[in-house]
Structure formats: structure tokens, C-alpha cells
Amino acid sequence: MIALRPELKVVVAAQPVDFRKSLHTLSALVSEALRANPYCGDIFVFRSKRSDRVKFLAWDGSGMVLVTKWLHQGHFTWPPIRGGVVHLSATQLAMLLDGLDWTRVSPKAVKQPAVVG
């Protein structure tokens, strides 16, 4: 199982992909287009041409996991379409998968507790 731990690296492919692509094809896309190792433990997120679908690919230590989600109402919040990748935090990924606007949460927005003493 994939745990959404704070140090988790989430990589979003900024260009939409054909959602007929299989686990093997997306793994090859991670290697070739994103220049990353699909077996490194990071989560790789792919968007469809329609903004209501998401796929993510991850290695959980014993096998490759491919998850697909379609929203029945509304749409996912995506960065502008361009080349390259966008990095998200585990919190932003959770918000993305819930269909919430993850762009309002940034690592800098999290307040650190004050040092007492």
C-alpha cells in the first residue's frame, strides 16, 4: 500500500496523456519523457485531456500500482499545460485526488510552531 508520508515526492506530468495507456506504457513514459526511475518510490501523476480524470503510478516496494480516478461532477485542478513536470507535496496530492483546489496550499503556507524557551 502507498502511504502519503510527508517526505513523499509527487511528480505531475504537465502534458495530458492518452488514458488508454497501460501500466507498462506509463512506466516507459516516466523513464523516457520524465527522465525518472518509475521504481524509485515516487508517485507519478498523469492527467487526461479532460480535466475530470487522473491516473497515478507508483512502486510500493513489491509491485507497480496504477490508480485511476474519474470525478462524476466537477474537475481536478491542474497546472497550466506545458512541457515538463510539476512537483506536489503529499498534502497537495491528497487534495488533488479529492477534487479540491491544491494550488491554495503551499509548503510555505504551513506555519511552524514557535520555539518556546
The major sheet is characterized as: 5 strands, mixed
Distance between the terminal alpha carbons, to the nearest Å?
Answer: 41 Å
Q: Secondary-structure element order, as H and E?
A: EHEEEEH
The average pLDDT score comes to 83
Number of β-strand runs: 5
Overall tally of structural domains:
1
Q: Which percent band covers the strand fraction? A: 15-25%
Q: What global shape is seen? A: globular
- State the low-pLDDT regions, or none: 109-114
Q: What is the oligomeric state here?
A: single chain
Summing up helix and strand content along with how strands pair, one would put the structural category as alpha+beta
Helix content: 10-25%
Strand order of the largest sheet: 4-3-2-1-5
| Number of helices, where a helix is a run of at least 4 consecutive DSSP H or I residues | 2
Roughly how many Å is the radius of gyration?
A: 15 Å
Organism: Bradyrhizobium xenonodulans
Protein name: IS66 family insertion sequence element accessory protein TnpB
InterPro entries: Transposase_IS66_Orf2
Features:
23% strand, 15% helix, five-stranded mixed sheet, 5 strands, 2 helices, 117 residues, alpha+beta, IS66 family insertion sequence element accessory protein TnpB, Transposase_IS66_Orf2
Description:
This protein is of the alpha+beta class and 117 residues long. It has one domain (10-103). Helix content is 15%, strand content 23%. It is built from two helices and five strands. A five-stranded mixed β-sheet has the order 4-3-2-1-5. Strand 1, helix 1 (23-32) and strand 2 (43-47) form a beta-alpha-beta unit. The chain is globular. Mean pLDDT is 83; it is low at 109-114.
